[in-house]
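Submission sheet (multi-component)
Chains listed below:
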Amino acid sequence: MSTVTTAATDAGDLAGSGTRMDSGEGIGAMETLRRGVAISPELREGIGVTLLLAVVASCGQVVVPIAVQQTLDRGLNGAGGPRLGFVVWLGLAAAVAIAVTSVASYLMTKRLFTTSERGLATLRVKAFRHVHDLPLLTQNTERRGALVSRVTSDVDQVSQFLVFGGLIFVVSVGQMLVATIIMVIYSWELALVVWLSFAPLFLSIRYFQRKLSQAYTVVRHQVGVLLGAISEPVVGAATVRSYAVEDRTQGRIDSAIDEFKAASTRAQKFTVVSFSLGGISAGVANAGVLIAGVLLGFTTDMTAGRVLAFAFLVTLFVGPVQMGTQILTDAQNAIVSWRRVIGILETPADLTDPGPAAEQLPRGPIDVTLEDVSFAYPDGPDVLREVSMHIDAGTRVAIVGETGSGKSTFAKLLTRLMDPRSGAVLLDGIDVRSIAPHSLRTSVVLVPQEGFLFDDSIAANVRYGKLDASSQDILASADELGLRDWLDGLPHGIDTMVGQRGESLSAGERQLVALLRAHLADPDLLVLDEATSAVDPHLEMRIGRALERLMQSRTSVTIAHRLSTAENADEVVVVDRGRVVQRGPHAELVTQTGSVYAGLHASWEAQHHS
Amino acid sequence: MSDEQAVLQGSTTREGFAVLGHAIRREPGIFVLSTIGSVLFAVLTVADAWVLGWATDYVVIPAFRDGEIGAGLLWAVLGLFVGVAILRAVGIVARRLGAGIMQFRMQAHTRRAVTRQYLTLPMEWHQRHPTGQLLSNAYSDVEAAWGPIAPLPMALGTVVMMVIAVVQMLLADLVLAIVGLVVFPAVVVANLAYQRLASPLMTHAQGLRAEVSEIAHESFDGAMVVKTLGRESEETARFRAKAHALRDVNIRAGSIRAAFDPTLASLPNVGVLVVLAVGVSRVMSGATDAGDVVTVAYLLTIVSFPIRAIGWLLGEFPRSVVGFRRTQSVLAATGSMTYGDERMRDASQGARLEVDDLHYAYDPDNPLLRGVSFDVEPGRTLAVVGQTASGKSTLTSLMTRLVDPDAGRIRIDGNDLRDLARGALAGSVALVPQTAFLFDDTVRGNVTLGDDIPDDEVWAALRAAQADGFVAALGSGLDTQLGERGTSLSGGQRQRLSLARALVRHPRLLILDDATSAVDPEVEARILATLRENEKDSTLVVVAYRKATIGLADEVIHLADGRIADRGTHAELLERSPAYARLVNAYEQAAHEEHP
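Outcome: structure written.
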């Protein structure tokens, strides 16, 4: 019983916190890295070796300057004049060093590509999976384009950073520290001058990081808006054409394109300014070292040679600082993207998984109990109010009521697409929140009004209900529902391709496929939400009769506008303004003059017997 | 795919430059600005070394030698260093910001062009192209295509640096310079090898990126079905397969890149070592002096960086060329509808509709409409009745010219639809489809579609569509944002908004394609009553099953087997056509059988 209470509290919290997805905005950069690595543990694999390779590889940059310097000092200008042998041996040693550092660089980059791509594939797949685990309401309020961009382009952004940024940054910081130590050994006063010259840069980094983070957050948000705008003329092609609103649609897309461009330009401005500050600091440092060196020469034992040597040391410091700032700047883009992907995973999945304590539904017709069920959409009034009822196993129940009376909410609660705000839905006496998801989805199937089809064959779409179904099984199911004539009349039978979202079929045909899919799944509780509204009456009645025959072994709940369905049900439940106002067989309810049902029936009669 | 790869291999570099050529011709101003910035940066990088030399010779050494120095000279050191640094920063800003702006502008240009194509290409083209692919064409392919713009000015600036360095090398010592410059052909060969190896992988990766996006888009679109059937794991497996394929290709491309980068970086370094060895032997033989060896070696190290910058540019080419081609294939797609220049007569009365021997087939072996002809007089109402999938919706698409017929013609007020000017039809004809599509906009925006229509008319249309009640109950009434495709509303609510969108325009021909299927009978009855009242003058074509809707019609056509099986009033058809009677009487018959 305690699990139920916990689940209910969670659901309550969720409803209170709204339906929006987590943008991850509150997470800092280091925290993002930490969580990111926790999600993709591959990123940590062999990091020690890769770091070692990176250090070796970065030594490659000093091999040639050292060789040049040695050649000058000892090969050409040495005490005994030019020494070819020394230079050749030095050259060979340097060549070996270059070969070694190149191999190290190759291995490092290859390892970085491998671990990053593996880690990001894991992140991508986990995020994708989590989108499907999100509450239905969240899925519906998020823009599809934004969701897609989180598992596609956002992940690509992170990839760029991980391969070309992350480790190089660590190495740069290392080089900077080594350069500082050498500088301090040479002259702590001049080292101080260098650090003071760079102090404004280091102090302003936090400011720029924050600005960049904000700017890139806007950019990534605009990507989602842009994808949403682009999808309108694609998904709504027919509407755009039939109302000739091409110009207006283009106008909306253009403004999304412009906003994206403006956001990108703004982010680029911060990037560029933050990057160019490093160069100015370097100029100040160079001047500072020379001036301070000269001044120190008057009071200490500083010599011209040491000042000039120090000037070269400064370049060893400036290089990694420039590289580091560059990476930090680019990193913000990646961090923002990473945060967005992590944001998906941090948005709580609605259906609090009951975990190992989950119960299995026994097979066979299910009996349904609602105990004081209330439901409200976030920030909305109650859609259902303290509804209690019991549906016996194996009965056929029709739920009727005006549009907006809460019928569809009913269907979503029964199938646990949403959890009630208070009260409980019990199937075979078990709270739906403590039933194992797989068991629930096997035994309980909802057929919504607009049955979505995947761009594949009819057979593949129907098989979605039962993965191991053979073509014979599909045809047998079609026979049972009386849909064989229709299937045989299609150009390629069950192998007919349905097109994007099933749009090569008519709306009625799409419903037939969805119905066939649900029937093949053979649930113990079948919930039909206006599942045959677009099918012609003759076929609808035929399907209705077929379903009746098949309902013997299952419980069925049908949400219907067409009262013909209600007339044939064992029991009719009338919902009005979130409450159950009448229930009983059709013949009984229709005689209750002045009742909601009598009213609904009268207008139905008026339409069909005129 | 294999053809594309074969073509790609030979000429990626040339084609990559051609792609950049487009960008430069399109945005010459900003390109010149960023290149100047880059050259400024390059020149000042050289100047930096010069300033250090000057300060050494004229400030540091004299100061230590003389034990004193004028404050003016110290200020000059500060001024020179900081001045050069600031100018250099200006160069960086011009280069990088310019390149960024150029890149973003080109992205915007291409995205505008591609989405304009989406709006002009016919429905039939749309049906053949998955949403995810089209999104990818307008987003990530565009990004890939213009990727090389970012490193372009840097590469060009360094070319200037390189030319100066090479000239200096040649002036210093011809033999050593030539030895050093052997590096260049080696760099070119390394690049060609890289392009050849990487291009096919890049093409493949870009294709996979589109597929990953297609699966994500479709799967998220069908999220409710996935949830209701508990197929999250299977969907994830489908996505994982593509995501992993993309991962593997990226890793392979990464390995090639990993080998290419250090190779390119070490070639000039090896050149320096050879120059040193040869140089020392030449010094020993007296052919040159030590200073020239140092100069050539130093210049070669300077040149090694530009070579990397050019490498970055070339490294972007394979992806860019693939992305550019994918966007071009959209831009080159033809088959957009042609329009005439006829305008509709601006008559207040209903339109006259003539449908003449219409043929249409999605599948040539299985024509859907095979010679459909009928007329509707102005102000009359026609009901189209037929079985599921008998071609009723296709007929409505033909009447609103979403598609053109294979043969036959449709005339409105005597004008063939194909002779009408673009947009002319929409002024007179409105279709309310079976599945409503709502824009990510306010309620008002969805009804007016941007036309200047006063709120009271919007409310009147909502009232007629029985949508005023629920719209008033929404948080901000007409200003309520509906979210993408109006998913926050129920199917019946979406249908009614879509109906209001048509009614507010007072079309002269209104076509309802089972447009109230998700609305309950009582509400539907009210809608029909208002429709009869308000649209008396309009010509009305309704696709319907319910008798109440059919009852609105002056005449009914019964569509069967691609032809008009019968035509007449509802009563006539009921009497003489058993097939028609079976279709429309199904509910009563069922009720009769159940409760005799």
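Remark: DSSP finds 21 helices and ten strands in chain A.
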